[in-house]
Amino acid sequence: MLELLQYEFIRNAILAAFLASVACGIVGVYVVVNRIVFLSDGISHAAFGGIGVGCFLGLNPIYSAIAFSIAVAVGVGASSKKLGAREDTVIGVIWALGMAVGIVFIKLTPGYVPDLFSYLFGNILTVPRSDLLVMLVLDIILVLIVALFFKELLAISFDREFAQTLRVPVNIIHSILLTLVAITVVMLIRVVGVILVMALLTIPAAVSEIFTKRLSQVMLGAVAFSLLFTLLGLWLSYLTNLPSGATIVLLASVVFFLTLLYGRQVRRRGS
Amino acid sequence: MPNIAVEIEGVSVYFDSRCVLEDINLKVLENDFLGIIGPNGGGKTTLLKVIAGLLKPTKGSVRVYGKPPDKSEKLIGYVPQMNQPDLAFPATVWDVVLTGRLSRSNLIKPYSVADKKAALEALKAMELEGLKDEPIGNLSGGQRQRVFIARALAAEPKILLLDEPTLSVDRRLDTKFWEYLNELKSRMTIIVVTHDISAISKYVDKIACLNRRLYYNESKQITREMWMEVYQCPVDIIAHGLPHRVLDEH
């Protein structure tokens, strides 16, 4: 297995797994406890629109994807309130719209057409060095924001209305949270793709929550589980010659259901 | 003459075109222990939210110690209805009580020594020191309710607002719960919304009835007229004599 490390693409893949795990472990916990899984999935599909536009304009699609997903993250809440539509309906529409925009612009892109499949299902083995640097910068921004607003993020996640009575700027903090989700989603698209993003955003957090009961510890645990899933999944995909993104998700899902059963056992014994 | 803690003048609240509160006038004095009763949907929670500054009234003015509600965050400790927060949330009792300090702590900076001291005092007042590191999901209904009061107390408020505090508390622990509030009475103004009339009549000093309109005569008495207006069914009323009862059976 060690001889694999001599390949640069393997070393890059391991680095990408590590960088993505830091983001999805931390932010995934907020996604899970705030019950914004559907919104997060909408954001990831909107990001696909950004990828299409980025390809069309000849930009690095990671930048346009970030712009699209942040715009959607912050825009959905505000627009559904202003237009008087139900938020989950707006998310559903944006979701489809993002995919459609992505497909149309990739079709319109002249010359070399990037591999759609790798954005939809991810390919951790093709992450270029330049993207690793972007991921590192995003990780640093993300960890800084979470460290600075940790107590406010906890307060609005636990009881938003109470936080409002203390005049915590709940709308601003909530927008910051959604921006974190947007950044994370774009990083994860590289690793597991648009369609499988939700697995890495929810499963490590949900599994970690079974074992520990403090927000900061759940985050550390989620980072560890995410790293375990991606690296072990990668290795399994190498052994079985199956696509890496799907293998990672399959592994994570199996662990998820096993820990649910375990958690139920523990609760039964406890009561 | 004691200070006026809350002064509400001509407050009406409409949700779209539906009138939820109509021309409410209420003066709550410092250190009053006021109970507000009324039927479900009568606007009790809405009135508390107006006082807490969560909801802007369509008409009228609210003053908390002379300040408008959007400047009163350090004066008010809000204890919301319990059905809301996620009980599987990964936080300890200590984490939750500390969030009560957010009106006094700064954005970005961590909690200060003073914040931690105040949170610890609040825990002690509710006899929760032993449960400090317990995950919030492991508590009983009554313990959790005390955590939410401790969280409100951590802000060192002058007014405590409680919305249906005994709804999910074990019946047997009810009286103990009211004793806790009774202890706090000397230190702050308490406004409690409930439909638990028997408990309220024993502990509170004053009672108001609310069903869209507010009926209040700055005493513990409920007149037959107030009752008829609010509940729209006839009852015989005993206001004196039995300390446990405001109203007789009907």
Helix share of residues of chain A?
over 70%
The Rg value of chain A, from CA coordinates, equals 19 Å
- What CATH first level of chain A would be assigned? Mainly Alpha
Order of helices and strands of chain B: EEEHEEHHHEHEHEEH
So, CATH architecture of chain A? Orthogonal Bundle
Count of helical regions of chain A: 12
Output the CATH topology of the largest domain in chain B: Rossmann fold
Structural class of chain B: alpha/beta
Give me the CATH fold name of chain A: ABC transporter involved in vitamin B12 uptake, BtuC
- What is the molecular shape of chain B? globular
How many domains of chain B? The number is 2
| Uncertain segments of chain B | 235-245
What is the C-alpha radius of gyration of chain B, as a whole number of Å? 18 Å
- What CATH architecture label of the largest domain in chain B applies? 3-Layer(aba) Sandwich
**Biggest sheet layout of chain B:** 6 strands, mixed
Largest sheet of chain A: none
The average pLDDT of chain A is 89
Shape verdict of chain A: globular
Descriptive overview:
The complex is a heterodimer of chains A (271) and B (250). With 271 residues, chain A is mainly alpha-helical. Chain A has a single domain, classed as ABC transporter involved in vitamin B12 uptake, BtuC. Helix content of chain A is 83%, strand content 0%. Chain A contains 12 helices and no strands. Chain A has helices at residues 8-33, 37-57, 61-83, 87-108, 116-121, 129-148, 150-158, 160-165, 170-192, 197-211, 215-240, 244-270. Chain A is globular. Chain A starts with 7 loop residues before the first helix and ends with a helix. In chain A, 49% of the residues are buried. The mean pLDDT of chain A is 89. Chain B has 250 residues and is α/β, with parallel strands linked by helices. Chain B folds into 2 domains: 1-75 and 159-174 and 185-250, P-loop containing nucleotide triphosphate hydrolases (Rossmann fold); 84-157, no CATH class. Chain B contains 7 helices and 9 strands, in the order βββαββαααβαβαββα. Chain B has a 6-stranded mixed β-sheet with strand order 5-6-7-3-8-9, with helices on both faces. Chain B has a 3-stranded antiparallel β-sheet with strand order 2-1-4, covered by helices on one side. Mean pLDDT of chain B is 84; it is low at 235-245. The chains are: A mainly alpha (271), B alpha/beta (250). The interface between A and B is medium-sized, with 28 and 32 residues.
